[in-house]
Design brief:
Layout (H helix, E strand, L loop, with lengths): L1 E6 L10 E4 L10 H4 L3 E2 L7 H9 L5 H13 L3 H11 L4 E6 L8 H13 L1
Parallel strand pairs: 1-4, 2-3, 2-4
Helix pairs in contact: 3-5
């Protein structure tokens, strides 16, 4: 399986395969048709408290946020994560869709790192 990441504001393409929105909130200004989302995985997205704390934190705190999100995925969101893995396995290409402007420091980066070994 090939795992990819893409912003919700980028054009959906057939090559994206199975598109999974991995944010708790729907991306602002993006219609459902334009987003072309196959699955909205709200339950594996960062909690509202974690998302707000991360947006208020300085960029150098990225690793703290990433560790807290990994802990959430291993703890309170573990069942949702395993359900997501089961839903993704049949698809040869999966694209994690997110809305953050920062393409290197967002929840999709961490989720991709967590999912990759579970999907092999």
């Amino acid at each position: 399986m090939e795992l990819r990441r893409k912003r919700a504001y980028d054009t959906a393409e057939r090559s994206d395969g199975f598109r999974v929105l991995v944010d708790r909130l729907w991306p602002r200004g993006v219609s459902k048709d334009r987003a072309a989302i196959d699955l909205w995985a709200k339950d594996v997205a960062p909690t509202t408290a974690l998302r707000k704390a991360w947006h208020a934190a300085p960029p150098e705190d990225w690793n703290v946020y990433a560790d807290q999100y990994r802990a959430q995925l291993a703890g309170e969101s573990a069942d949702a994560l395993h359900t997501l893995v089961d839903e993704l396995k049949p698809h040869p290409v999966v694209t994690l869709i997110y809305s953050s402007r920062n393409t290197d420091h967002d929840n999709a980066v961490v989720l991709e790192e967590v999912l990759a070994p579970l999907l092999d």
